[in-house]
């Protein structure tokens, strides 16, 4: 055979074989060597840096630890003293202001993070105790009522509220102050 014929025949055969094996799906790539490093799993799309959550919700109020709670009680004591002194001398505006301040302080009592020290509820949070919350509420209400009475010059009423304030302090301390 002429070499051209041989070459052409080879070419035809090669093409035909190639087409045939492709059709049969046998054109597989060589098997990877056993110890070929496995391909890393595709990296996750780099995420956007975590966005600052918009601070829609009011930041959760922080509880008052022992130091903060004692500071609060000192403020309460000072404000209570101011209130009583101005009430004694019937200075209406001053009494009203001090009593309103006392009511504001009283609202914070239930943020106490202190644990009950003794009794059945030992170890629980004071702020979760019904009586604790009740006395804090009593103090707030009495202080608000005292502010109003002082504003209106109703001194007898103011005196009664002052006594209620005293009862709330004492009741709570008797049970919860160590
Ligand atoms: C609902 C409970 C509650 C009420 C109401 C309350 N207190 Fe207290 N108070 C406490 C507790 C509990 C402590 C002890 C805190 C501690 O162990 O650190 C305390 C401690 C104090 C202390 C000591 C603070 C210190 O330096 O250790 C003072 C002073 C005080 N109270 C004043 C008052 C006055 C005055 C009132 C009323 C006008 C009042 N408290 C009402 C719960 C209360």
Bound heterogens, unique: heme C
Number of helices: 5
Q: What is the average of the pLDDT values?
A: 83
Strands, total number: 0
Instruction: Just give the CATH class of the domain at 66-176.
Output: Mainly Alpha
Tell me the strand percentage band: under 5%
In terms of per-residue confidence, which ranges show pLDDT below 50 for 5 or more consecutive residues?
A: 15-21
User: For the terminal residues, how far apart are their CA atoms?
Assistant: 117 Å
Class per helix and strand makeup: mainly alpha
How is the CATH topology of the domain at 66-176 named?
Four Helix Bundle (Hemerythrin (Met), subunit A)
The value of Rg in angstroms is: 42 Å
In short:
This protein has helices at 3-23, 66-88, 92-108, 130-151, 155-176.
Descriptive account of the structure:
The chain is mainly alpha-helical and 178 residues long. The chain has a domain at 66-176: Four Helix Bundle (Hemerythrin (Met), subunit A). It has 5 helices and no strands. The N and C termini lie far apart (117 Å). The model is unreliable at 15-21 (pLDDT under 50). The structure holds heme C. The site of heme C has 21 residues, from helix 2, helix 4 and helix 5. Heme C is lined by residues 66, 69-70, 73-74, 76-77, 80, 109, 132, 135-136, 139, 165, 168-169, 172-173, 176-178.
